[in-house]
Inverse folding.
């Protein structure tokens, strides 16, 4: 067991000393940048796409309809996804509230204040988590290939949201108050 210059044990899990690990080559920086762009693009597309659909759902449901992001069908039975099914005027209020929350969460991630960035990240992680929970509960009811694909895609989006949230959580941005 060795200790790096920080005094923390490495347990032999690092292949390079701490000075070498801090120096990234151009290829590593480029790869990290591309991965971060892809992760952010996935989160942005998910958040903006679902928020815009929620606004459409709110209008549709308010006029007396019913809306849902996805559901599973088994014969004549239909299983809606928990938290992603809207009906009646209360459903319109819930859909509108979810749209506002997702858009506010996305906007908060731009804040120079760490607390706001973290709150925005938590909102987006909770929204993606609701999708994973809804899809996973439906795939337990009906094991169709469509539901398995939806669950897998929701899981990828959730992981991307977590990665972006952790990156923003540890970001060193700070506002200069003069």
């Amino acid at each position: 067991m060795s200790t790096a210059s920080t005094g923390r044990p490495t347990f032999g899990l690092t292949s390079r000393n701490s000075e070498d690990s801090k120096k990234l080559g151009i290829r590593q920086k480029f790869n990290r940048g591309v991965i971060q762009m892809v992760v952010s693009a996935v989160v942005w597309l998910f958040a903006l796409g679902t928020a815009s659909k929620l606004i459409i759902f709110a209008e549709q449901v308010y006029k007396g309809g019913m809306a849902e992001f996805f559901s599973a069908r088994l014969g004549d039975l239909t299983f809606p996804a928990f938290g992603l099914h809207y009906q009646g005027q209360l459903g319109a209020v819930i859909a509108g509230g979810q749209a506002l929350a997702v858009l506010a969460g996305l906007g908060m991630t731009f804040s120079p204040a760490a607390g706001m960035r973290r709150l925005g990240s938590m909102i987006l992680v909770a929204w993606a988590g609701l999708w994973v929970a809804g899809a996973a509960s439906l795939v337990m009811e009906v094991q169709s290939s469509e539901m398995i694909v939806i669950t897998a895609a929701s899981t990828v989006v959730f992981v991307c949201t977590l990665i972006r949230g952790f990156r923003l959580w540890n970001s060193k941005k700070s506002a200069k108050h003069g």
Summary: Residues 12-18 have pLDDT under 50 and may be disordered. The chain has one domain: 24-169. Residues 26-62 form the longest helix (37 residues).
